[in-house]
Each structure stands twice: as structure tokens, then as C-alpha cells.
Amino acid sequence: MINIVGLGYIGLPLAFSFAANGIKVTGTDCNINLLKKLRSGEIPFEEKGLYELWEQAKNNIVFTEKCIEADIYIIAVPTPYDKNTKRIDASYVVTAVHDVLEAAPKGSIIVLESTVSPGTIDKYIRPAVEKAGFIAGDTIHIAHSPERIIPGNLVNELVTNSRTIGADSLEIAEKIKAVYGSFCTGEIICTDIRTAEMTKIVENTFRDINIAFANELAKICREGSLDVHEIIRIANKHPRVNILNPGPGVGGHCISVDPWFLVGDYPILANLVKTARQINDSMPHYVLERTVQIMKETGITDLSKVGFYGLTYKENVDDVRESPTMQLLDAMRIHMAPSPKVYDPYIKKAIVPNQVFSLDEFLNGLDIVVIMVAHDEIIEKANLLESKVVFDTRNIVKITDVYKL
Ligand code: SAJ
């Protein structure tokens, strides 16, 4: 029996994957409404293939508010950072570990999937385990298998991505590897816990720095009247160059968060990491400045004629955490600007002022459309933009005379 604690974007697909492969799973979450939904067969967020996976999983899974007796516990709860110190806020993880320890039998294994800063397990989890009367590596085992799946392709990546397992002994790592091997076809690498913690942070920091380079290039190319997209396209033909895409900023709960852990823990050393974060965080404001510039160039003075397409942090997901559009709207609010028209096909509830709920209503009366998110909808319906001034921050629409970053 596996008990998965935390049924969000990571825990839920993971629970379904085990259950769909014949393993008995209990999914535990403190959110009663979520449990009600799940028990009635409702999936709380949109994700390709998740419903189909649920269909295969449902006979092997139950949902509870409290942890139950199990062989393996897998914790997948949020790990935000403290905005002042930039250090990890491990409180959700610690609470989850306490909940697990109330039910855990001797010899069971606790696997942490949540992303944590290097050293978190030694600092917070081992002491919690020992305080509860267990001996780590003897009466209970601790391990870390950081999630690596990308929203928008969670279900596929769970199966095909390689995976890291950090444990105190190879024997325990191999046991965990065998369980994940029930559905994971990627390579499963066993290592120690601190290496697994650091590797995960390094992966997301690498991506953040690469995007920051693309964003800095976008600013340089704008100043030098060059097309950054064409330059990156050509540079990437070099066999050892792979620059990511510039955009309106880096959102989501991972890439815009995890690098801060290094800055918080190594403030003197993590200079490149910090600068990259600052560059990416500057992009929503840069988009705003460029929008104002485009308004001047096109003689459009009325802000109510400018609309922002897309609220989510990236394309074809319904997640708005740390999204560049939300950051941009916040910056406008600080400057007391009127709320511009916004629309996102994935956000069906009103979460910001002046939000509309259909593309037609959005485009009606607008002179300038700022594309913030590359949803398939706008790529497929780009012809509807032909009479508008378009500022395409994602370089996705193929119509003439489009303003770019
Ligand atoms: N972005 C760009 N330019 C790009 C790529 C992305 O501006 O070329 C922006 C996106 O629009 C988005 C943000 O960056 O706002 C992050 O999006 P993403 O698709 O790069 O990544 P996430 O946050 O959805 O998922 C990442 C993944 N990590 C890596 O690719 C190294 C995923 O594998 C991790 O599981 C996830 O973080 C996590 O939970 O850590």
C-alpha cells in the first residue's frame, strides 16, 4: 500500500499512475472539498490524459483526510519560499511528515517528492522523525525523489522522464526504484539525499538562467534594432547552442521559485542565479513599458483600447501562480492605471477586474492586443487579429506587422 500525501498537480497524477498499474493507493489531503470532488470522480484541474488515467486507476484508489498505515508514504505538498529571506518555507512538508508519523508503522519509507533546498531533509525532516521516536535508517527510512514533470504534459512525463532517488542506503533506494518502476520507463538513478535535493534545484535554475539570457538578449536586440528570435533561431543551429525563448516573464511555482533557495542559502556565492531571477522578474514591467511605447508609435492614447491575452503562467494550462500577466496587472495597479481588458480561455472564473470570458468579447473594441500566453486558441485564431495592432510577446502569431519583444 502506498499513501500519497498532497493531491495537487504532482501528487494526483502520481497517485493515479501507481493505481492504474495495479498498486493499492490511498490519496490523502487536508482539503475536504478536494476529497469530496475526487470521491465523486471529479478531477480538480485540466491536464492532458489525466481523466483517462483516472478511469484506469479508480478501482485501486481511495481518498482520506488522515494518513493511513502503509509501506511507502510519498509527500507532494507545496514548498514556497519566504519572500524576504528567499529561504524555503518548509512548513507544509514538516506538517505532512508529522501527519505521516502518526500512522507510519516501523520499517516504512517516507519519500519526499516536493522540491526542497539542499539540506532541507537533514534540517527539518530528520529532527521531526527523531522527535517522534523513530530512528532514521532503522525504524523508518527517509528518501527524496524530486518530481520532474512539466505541467501540460504531466501524465506522459511521469512515465518517460528519468528520475532521481536519493536515500540513506542503496538497499532502500532500490526498493523505491522497484515501486516507481511499476510505471516509469525512464532511467532511475540512485544517489544520496543531498545530491538528489541539489540536482533538482540545479535543473530548474539552469532553465531559469537560460531563459534570463534569452530575455536579456531580447532587450539588447531591441536597443540594437535586431530581431532576437531570428538571432536565437540561427544561433541554435550550432550543435552546442540551445538558447530558450524570451517571453513576458517566468511564472509557475517551480522555475520562478526554486533558484531563490540557492540565493537565500548562499547569498554571497549565488550571483549569476540572483541576476537571472532579477532579469526574468523584470520582464512583465518591460512588456508594460514596450506597450506604452507601441501606443505612442501607433497614436493610440486610450488604455481601454489595449487588452492583454492570457492570464496563466504558460500555454494550455489553467494555473496562474506567479504568472507574468498577474505580475504586470499588479504593477499597473501600483501605478494606479485603470484595469485593462484581459481574457484567458482557461480561466472561467473572474479573478481580476475587467476580465471577459470569450475571445469575441475580448477583441471587440480593442485597438491593441498584447499576447502574453501562447495558448493554442490564439495561434489557431490568429486571423481574428488582422485588423488590430498586435504585440506578440511570445512570437507565435504568423501575421504581418506584429510588434515583438
Ligand atoms: N518560459 C519562457 N521561455 C522558455 C520556456 C519557458 O519564458 O523558453 C517561461 C514559461 O512561459 C513559464 C516559465 O518559463 O512562465 C516556466 O515554464 P516551463 O515550461 O519552463 O516550466 P514549469 O515551471 O512548467 O516546469 C518546470 C520544469 N523544469 C524544467 O524543465 C527544468 C519541470 O520539469 C519541473 O517538474 C517543474 O518546473 C517543477 O515542478 O519543478
- Poorly predicted tracts of residues: none
Classify the oligomer. Answer: single chain
Could you say what the CATH topology of the largest domain is called? Rossmann fold
User: Which range best describes the helical content: under 10%, 10-25%, 25-40%, 40-55%, 55-70% or over 70%?
Assistant: 40-55%
Count of beta strands: 14
How many structurally independent domains? Answer: 2
**Proper CATH architecture of the largest domain:** 3-Layer(aba) Sandwich
Intertermini distance: 51 Å
Order of helices and strands: EHEHHEEHEHEHEHEHHHHEHEEHEHEE
Number of H- or I-type helical stretches: 14
CATH class of the largest domain: Alpha Beta
Structural class comes to: alpha/beta
Short structural summary:
The protein has 14 helices and 14 strands. The chain has 405 residues and is α/β, with parallel strands linked by helices. The protein is globular and about 70 Å long.
